[in-house]
Amino acid sequence: MAEAADFQGTRPSPARRWLRRTGAVLAGTPLLAGLLQLPAASPVEAAAPAAPKAASDDGSVAVSVDSLTPGAPAEGDTVTVTGTVTNKGKKAVTKAAVGLRVGPLMDTRSSIDTVAKNSGDVDGPVGSEIDDKYSEKFSKLAPGVSQPYTLSVPVDELDLGQDGVYDLSVTLTGETSDQPWEQTLGVRHTFLPWQPDEADTKTRTTFMWPLISTVHMTAETGSDEEQTPVFLDDELAAEISPGGRLDRMVALGRDLDVTWVIDPDLLASVEAMTTRYEIPGENADDKNAVGGHQEVAKRWLTEVQRAVADKEVVALPFGDPDLASLAHHGTSVTGSLRHLKEATDVASGTVESILHVKPSTDFAWPVEGAVDPSIVKVSTSAGADKVIARGDTFEGGRDLTYTPTAPRPIGGGTTAVVADARLSTVFEGDMTRASASTQAVQRFLAQSLTLALQTDRPRSVVVAPQRTPSAAQAQTMAEAVAALQNSTWSQPQDLTAAAKSKPDPAAGTEVPSASAYPRSLRKQELPRSAFEQIARTQDKLDRFKVILSDQSRVVTPFGRALNRGMAASWRGRPAEAAIYRSGVETYLDTLSSQVRLIEKSETKLSGRSATIPVTVQNNLVQGVEHLVLRLTSTNPTRLEIDGKAFEEQPIAVSGGHSQSVKFTTNANANGRATVVAQLYTQDGRPYGQPVTFDVKVTEITATVMLVIGGGVLLLVLAGFRMYTQRKRAAARKAEERTQDDAADEADVDAGEAQNPEASDRRPTQESAPDTREGAPEQPSDPAPDTAPESADPSGTGERVDR
């Protein structure tokens, strides 16, 4: 970014330092000659220089500035500086004194960068020393020992002049045994912004306050009615617990005039924790453990609702997708932009339903604000018309001596909102040390004031810090924003208002080329294979959802998981990203396989026609429908399915049930035929794996019928022969009985002739029954006496009822 030439406040060049030192030597030559006329001095006196001398570039004593209050003083204030001094050398430091020095005015932003880069350089200029009464003295500073200090100086004693940023340095002077003269042994430079009166034209500053996390939820849900969510881990609970990173972000941002930039996935994940949720067990075979941070989640969401009330909220697309990766590797994969559109569509509803505020979805935020034409095109493809860029990757404009205002029209109705790079990156790094945090705050204020003093033009400045600041970084950011909002040169502004402010006609509007995209960022992008896997999983989801009676139970969790699969938070973690995407696809395959055909063994058919049952099993908790089961004969000349090569039947199976479907088959020839059963969706796409089995056909021929008929005829003839044989046997017995009766009559008549009295004892015809064959039967006659059935074979033609 172009700036005014850097003159005031810069360090002397080596050549100038050499000339200055040479001049001092030449000027002191007459004095040296005179001294030679004097008596010899003691060795110590001879070695002592006329002025303090710097020990080394780093200094043997480390000086830290742990606090500086107020950060931007006004008239009548007292500046208080606290910190520590630590002897890093091997010699004790005696006659040590810590004091403040005010250096020259720094009127360019690059001079501030230079001082910040060399803040511990004891060879650099340190300015004039303030009155000795405001210093703190130590009789001895032993090696390795640290001593705290506190310096308090009224602003009036600092002798500050015109408005601007001054180099304020804390120095430690002292002596060592091998260098027994006063010298500067340690220094720490910091910045003191000075503008006691209200500026006529204040800079309108927008500070983006990001509420973003990494991916925590999986695609897996429970089979219960509430669909209990399953998390990757319980790290989100730590972030939202008291003292956690996200807890601090909310607590610190609540009292600041900032624009909240929120990933809806974070809100959805925390809301899922307010009821029952599960996390994987330690081992793969362990069941999921139940998470127990419901109250923590409820409290955090309540705090967020309070913090964003009456504040501007910008909703990023769901999951905070990596726009640069999508532009460079995903657009060539069919369907990738569809996911960005879906993530944008659900963003507003998610935020509004949880926070009860209507967010803006007009902004796209590529990683670190780095853009090129393809990134801008992808960013605006889902409806956003404002792209947040950053000044170090976006040209400021030719021959500009000031930082231009943030909005830049870049064509096609799109506005690039260019964040200031120096203000946006000052909070990076380790802010757990008080000295680093204080330096960042003072540098932020110094850059802001210097920017404001560049011109009288009204400007809008945007600060876009890192996406996921740590708790310490958030604390530092909050201190800097609070100090800035209490300053005399800046006033807060919403991001939407900044984007709508009048652009600077002299500012550059050309989007950097693809070759200008930072190589370090390109190395961290998601590869093409990531988007191919996401597309493959989406295709499987599209085939699976059409058979479900309640698609939302599957489409919603998997759709959001696919959005998370392209999150910007996966940068620098390629292995974890690949594991997550594979987990989503594998779980979808597991669900899809719960609707399947049961394997069949070989089937035997006897006859020209028969039915073959095929069973469909549904192990899902919900019913499936819109399926078609097709049974196909691979050899229809031998075996037909309902008179043709295949037959289809619609399928609908309730959750947790199975259904058998019967197909009518017709056999045309003996032998083995292969049959294939396959499920299809209604649009004709195969579903699941086919089931193949053999059918063995044994057809009934004419020869077989003759054999069977001959067997039946033989049985009939054998039965008729047995009947006739029994008939003949019964006739012979009747004839033999008649002959026996006639013989008995003859014997009786012969006996009567010999004995007449016996005839008188014979019954008369009226009183004796007539037992002769053919005699009329009387009602009172007893039943005839039949002989037992002979065991001999029956005669031919006899029928025996059995």
TrEMBL record:
Q: Show the ranges annotated as biased composition (Acidic residues).
A: 741-750
Which InterPro entries does this one have?
DUF6049, Ig-like_fold, TonB_box_CS
Q: Which Gene3D superfamilies match?
A: Immunoglobulins (2.60.40.10)
Keyword Membrane among UniProt keywords = yes
GO BP terms in the entry: carbohydrate metabolic process
Mind telling me which Pfam families this protein's record contains? DUF6049
Mind telling me what this protein is named? Uncharacterized protein
